[in-house]
Design goal:
Layout lengths: L5 E6 L6 H12 L2 E4 H8 L7 H20 L4 E4 L5 H13 L3 E8 L2 H10 L8 H10 L8 E4 L4 H11 L1
Parallel strand pairs: 1-3, 1-4, 2-3, 4-5
Helix pairs in contact: 1-7, 2-3, 3-4
């Protein structure tokens, strides 16, 4: 693996702006961006978001991340990562592949999230009810991580990204 190769996991609730942050990181760092939303659409015709389905999606997602790292590219992962075990799993992948790992938690004011979800046209199926449900299920982050507040403008978020990388 090259010295500058890395795995960046962007986590947070639906609608907080993970995809915007991951897109900015991909432009800034290069590499390949992988999204659980896209993997789910490839694997499941009618998503139910059951525990078994989510496990299947994350299994495929992590496998793609490993293969991409083995191919020499950096990887930016775009997923909710609501469980600590999911975050630890990708942290282990980075360690196993001897690449730098960064976990970024994207947050945003609830009112802004709900407003954005209502007007977005995106691959994600998550609506306001899903946001609220996942908020109650999102496990505390125990790994070292960075935090980006995406409550402001795209430029303010980009400034936070540029301070990190």
């Amino acid at each position: 693996m090259s010295a500058d190769q890395q795995l960046v996991a962007v986590c947070g609730l639906p609608g907080v702006g993970k995809s915007s942050v991951a897109e900015q990181l991909t432009e800034r760092l290069g590499g390949i961006r992988l999204r659980t939303d896209a993997v789910r659409k490839e694997l499941v015709d009618e998503p139910t978001y059951s525990a078994a389905e989510t496990e299947r999606v994350y299994d495929a997602f992590v496998k793609r991340a490993k293969n991409t790292l083995k191919g020499g590219d950096s990887v930016i992962l775009d997923a909710t990562f609501r469980k600590q075990s999911q975050r630890e799993r990708v942290h282990r992948v980075a360690a196993d592949e001897s690449v730098q790992f960064t976990l970024i938690h994207v947050v945003c004011d609830d009112d802004i999230v709900e407003q954005r979800i209502r007007i977005r046209d995106d691959i994600s199926d998550a609506d306001v009810d899903v946001f609220r449900q996942l908020k109650s299920e999102f496990e505390p982050i125990e790994l070292d991580h960075e935090r980006i507040d995406n409550s402001g403008t795209r430029e303010e978020t980009a400034e936070q990204v540029s301070r990190l990388f």
